[in-house]
Fold:
Amino acid sequence: MNRTFTIFGAGLAGTLMAVLLARRGYRVELYERRPDPRRGPSERGRSINLALSTRGIEGLKRAGLSEEVLATAIPMRGRMIHPPTANPTLTLLPYSRNPSHHINSVSRSGLNITMLNAAERHSNVRVHFGKRCLGMNLETGQAEVKDAATGATQWIETETVIAADGAFSGVRSSMQVRDRFDYSQSYLEHGYKELTIPPAPGGGWRIEKHALHIWPRGSYMMIALPNQDGSFTCTLFWPFEGPHSFASLTSREEIVGFFSEHFPDSLPLIPALADDFIHNPTASLVTVRCGPWNVGGRAVLVGDAAHAVVPFYGQGMNCSFEDCAVLDDCIASHPDDLGEAYADYAAQRKPNTDALAQLALENFVEMRDKVNDPAFVFRRRVEHAMEALFPTYTSLYEMVTFSTIPYAEAAARSAEAQRAVSALGLTREAEQRLGECAIRLAGEAASRPIEELRKDLRAAAERELGVERLAQLIRTLSTPR
Ligand SMILES: Cc1cc2nc3c(=O)[nH]c(=O)nc-3n(C[C@H](O)[C@H](O)[C@H](O)COP(=O)(O)OP(=O)(O)OC[C@H]3O[C@@H](n4cnc5c(N)ncnc54)[C@H](O)[C@@H]3O)c2cc1C
Structure:
């Protein structure tokens, strides 16, 4: 039990892992490249808020932190779509047919501080700020650490290392030079820039608080998530280069002109637009895939160090917290053989994080483009109708965001359901009528028993599909798994 874990990276995964190990009685030495975030302003250019959902909440629950974190979170019930007009009619696309399901906007720095405080409440955790891991000798376990204040480097002894040092992990760079280590990184041609909608005069939120706002524009988009202080953080996802790109907007006039043409309703909401646009950094979006994630019991990767994904499913942090929970279980199952524990953890997680990486890339197209397409909107509603009709059917978004069904299984189940629905050859009109019926019935959900609504929906589906095709659909979607 008197084992010492060295964790590099006191970000989201590193601090959660520190708390989980400390609760099991292990000693933890936690090294963080940056200064203590509680003693200075937060870093510019990192996403300011994040969407926390079921998997992340489960990880926090395990550390006894979910209530504290959710107390300051803002529930977001759906996507609010902003068309490109000055006074648009906004449409809310609910995330789930279950009205109690929502995602939560949380402050990255607030969450990080809560978790650092939680780690430091354990006397067996020591945190070292301003210490960057440059790499490690994976034969001896010595790690090279650079002090940010003095620039001096030092080799430290480690018993076992958990690398939670993010997408550009120092520990992983040492794994990369080993034989048979697979590694790939690919950047999107889009980058992102953050902008701010300040609170309304006198306080409060200028646009709907309980939604994730999206301005979908085909090949690019802007989103906005609410903050506790009444502001929203907007993120513009746009190509780095080309005729319509960050590189093409250089003057204040061009910036304002671009927003008034493409995001006109946002213009009065972002008073510091040109200044923010010019001064805030443009950051890149990378997918990292690699393996094996561990070198025996010497070192193991978690979170973005193992699998950075693009942010379009809002799952990078949620998935990283799920990593921590699985790693915690594996260490508990093999306390005397960390090589076995790390290999077991990697075998459970890698297929799932590979599936998430793909889902996240696909969701970019859905968010920036498909949500504008009426056929997509109806298909989403038909999905909700199917969920109401077939209790065993669950949409992909629901499985990814509001369940802990492994990502790879969620992707496979969804592909199977899509094939079944396509095989029915539903016309667009039939989809639309079914969707409309589902929406009408959803409106009555509060006043009528669910079984009665289900019966009505089933009758509508029977009208649209015919008895035989409906029976076929029920057989496919209701197969117990
Ligand atoms: C724009 C954007 C929006 C996002 N939105 C969401 C969202 O809504 N929901 C969601 O679930 N996920 C989201 N993510 C993903 C999420 O931010 C990451 O998946 C998550 O932060 C991963 O946690 P981590 O601890 O592995 O890495 P990080 O949070 O990056 O933490 C790594 C830590 O290690 C430190 N470090 C780095 N190198 C070293 C070193 N060599 N030595 C010592 N310390 C080091 C860093 O300073 C940092 O503190 C988003 C990402 C981006 C870019």
Observations:
- The first helix runs from residue 12 to 23.
- Residues 8-14, 31-34, 47, 50-51, 132-133, 164-166, 170, 192, 235, 303-305, 311, 314-318, 320 surround flavin-adenine dinucleotide (CB under 6 Å).
- The mean pLDDT is 90.
- Residues 373-477 form one domain.
